[in-house]
Design a protein that fits this description.
By secondary structure, the chain is an alpha/beta fold. It has ten helices and 17 strands. The model has no long low-confidence stretch (mean pLDDT 97). Bound molecules: 4-nitrophenyl 6-deoxy-alpha-L-galactopyranoside.
C-alpha cells in the first residue's frame, strides 16, 4: 500500500472573502439530470451524476442525451436571488463534470450546451450575469482529470493504461480552463475534483494557468498533489476538531449531487442549521448542494429546506459570517454550539431552555444580547460549588419556549478562555 502523505502546512487562500464566507451554494447540473438516476429501466444506487460510469453507458449512447436537453424552466436569476436570500456568499457551478459535457459555449469541444442541445444557450454566462446583478461570488467546478467523453480522459474504476492523458490535457482541459478564466469575468474559485493520476507537474501547470489569468481565483483542495489553497474535506465529512487554515465541507441535502427522482432522503432544516454552525465553529465553510431537474426546476424540497435554513442564517448572521474557529471547549453541549469573533462569543441555542448556562469559560463578560434583535440580556458570572467558572444569561419570557436562536456574550478578552474541568 502506498503510504499517505501528511498535509504539510495549513492552507491559506489569502482571500478574506473566503475566510468570512462560511456558507455557499453548490450546483450540480449536467446531462445526467435527464436520466435522474435511471437508464433503460435500470436505477443507480449511487450518486446520480455518476450514472454513465456506474451503469456503463457507452459514450455513443450517453452523448445522445444532449439532443434532449432543453431546460425551459431554468432561471439563473431566481437561483442566485434565492442563494442571496439564504445568506450564501458564493456559488460553485459544475461547468464540466466527469461526463465531459461543457455547460458553456466552449470553442474546443462541441460537446457543449450551446452547440449540442436544442436549448442552445450558455448556462455559465447566465449564471455570470445573474451573479453580477446580485453581487454574488461565482466559482466553477471543473473535472480536470476525469472526462468520460474524451477518449484520453481518466475514468475511475476503469482501465486507464492506454490513455494519452497529455493529449487530453492539451486538447480539452487547458483550453477549457482558459475559456472559463478569460470569458466569464472574475472567477472566485475553480473547484477542481478527483485528480486521479494527475502528476504534481501537471497539477502545477493547472495552478499556474489559473493564476496567470486570474491571480485572485482560488484553487480548491482537490487539484491534488497538495497544491490547493484550501482543504476540501470528504463529501459530507466534518472534521471532528477545530481545524486550522481555510477549508470547506461540500455537502448534499439528500444523498446525491445531481438530480435523482428517487432520492427523497432529505435532511431536515434543523439538521442543516446544526451542521452549518458546527462547521463554522470548527473554522470551515459549508458548501451546500442543489441538483436542478433537467427542466431547470430546482427540486421544491431543496427550496423548502433552504428557505427555513435561510431564516436562521439571516436572523443570526452576526453569529455566522466572519466568525473564527473556536478552540477546544471542555464540553460538547447537547443543546447548542459556540461560534466566535474577537471579543464576542456566540451561543447558538437549539433546544428551549429557561436560561443559558455555561461553565468552564473564565472570561470577564461585559455584556450579553440576543443576536436577532440586539435585545440586552441580564447575566451574572459566578463559580460552581466545585470551583468552575459559571456564566448565567437570563432569557426574556418570550424566549422560554423558543429554540434556534443565538446569544452573544461580550468578552473583555479577545478569545474565550476555556478552563479544564474541576470535578
Ligand atoms: C466528487 C465527484 O465525483 C462527485 O460527483 C461530486 O461532484 C462531489 C462533490 O465530488 O466526489 C468525491 C470526491 C472526493 C471525495 C469524495 C467524493 N473524497 O475525497 O472523499
Amino acid at each position: 500500500m502506498k503510504k499517505k502523505k501528511e498535509s504539510k502546512k495549513m492552507k491559506d487562500t489569502k482571500q478574506q472573502w473566503f475566510k468570512d464566507a462560511k456558507f455557499g451554494l453548490f450546483i450540480h447540473w449536467g446531462l445526467y439530470a435527464l436520466l435522474a438516476g435511471e437508464y433503460n429501466g435500470r436505477k443507480t444506487d449511487r450518486i446520480a451524476e455518476w450514472i454513465m460510469n456506474d451503469l456503463d453507458i457507452p459514450v455513443e449512447e450517453y452523448e445522445k442525451l444532449a439532443s434532449q436537453f432543453n431546460p425551459v424552466e431554468f432561471d439563473a436569476e431566481m437561483i442566485v436571488r434565492k442563494a442571496k436570500e439564504w445568506g450564501m456568499k458564493y456559488i460553485v457551478f459544475t461547468s464540466k463534470h466527469h461526463e465531459g459535457f461543457a455547460m458553456w459555449d466552449s470553442k474546443c469541444s462541441d460537446y457543449n450546451v450551446v452547440k449540442a442541445t436544442p436549448y442552445g444557450r450558455d448556462i455559465v454566462r447566465q449564471f455570470r450575469e445573474a451573479c453580477d446583478k446580485y453581487d454574488m461570488k461565482l466559482g466553477f467546478y471543473y473535472s480536470q482529470a476525469q472526462d468520460w467523453h474524451d477518449p484520453d480522459g481518466y475514468i475511475h474504476r476503469k482501465d486507464n493504461s492506454k490513455k494519452n492523458y497529455r493529449a487530453y490535457l492539451e486538447r480539452k482541459c487547458f483550453p477549457q480552463l482558459r475559456e472559463l478564466l478569460t470569458e466569464y469575468g472574475d472567477v472566485a474559485l475553480i473547484w477542481f475534483d478527483t485528480p486521479m493520476g494527475t502528476t504534481k507537474e501537471e497539477s502545477q501547470e493547472m495552478v499556474d494557468l489559473v493564476k496567470s489569468l486570474q491571480p485572485n481565483c482560488i484553487v480548491s483542495g482537490r487539484i491534488g498533489n497538495e497544491l490547493g489553497e484550501y482543504m476540501t474535506t470528504g463529501d459530507n465529512f466534518i472534521p471532528r476538531l477545530p481545524y486550522e487554515g481555510d477549508w470547506e465541507v461540500p455537502a448534499t441535502l439528500n444523498d446525491t449531487w445531481g438530480f435523482n427522482k428517487d432520492d427523497h432522503k432529505w435532511k431536515d432544516p434543523e439538521e442543516i442549521i446544526r451542521l452549518l454552525v458546527k462547521i463554522n465553529s470548527r473554522g470551515g465553510n459549508y458548501l451546500l448542494n442543489i441538483g436542478p431537474e433537467a427542466s431547470g426546476h430546482v427540486p421544491d424540497e431543496s427550496v423548502r429546506i433552504l428557505d427555513e435554513v435561510g431564516k436562521y442564517v439571516n436572523e443570526n448572521e452576526e453569529a455566522i459570517f466572519g466568525t473564527k474557529r473556536v478552540g477546544i471547549y471542555a464540553y460538547e453541549l447537547d443543546w447548542g454550539m459556540l461560534t466566535r469573533k474577537d471579543h464576542k462569543l456566540y451561543v447558538h441555542v437549539f433546544k428551549p431552555r429557561r436560561r443559558v448556562e455555561l461553565i468552564n469559560i473564565a472570561n470577564k463578560i461585559t455584556g450579553a444580547y440576543l443576536v436577532a434583535d440586539k435585545r440586552e440580556l441580564e447575566f451574572k458570572t459566578s463559580m460552581t460549588c466545585e470551583g468552575n467558572s459559571a456564566i448565567d444569561v437570563e432569557l426574556p419570557e418570550d424566549y422560554f419556549d423558543r429554540k434556534y436562536f443565538s446569544v452573544c456574550l461580550e468578552m473583555e478578552e479577545e478569545e474565550p478562555i476555556f478552563e479544564p474541568i474541576i470535578g
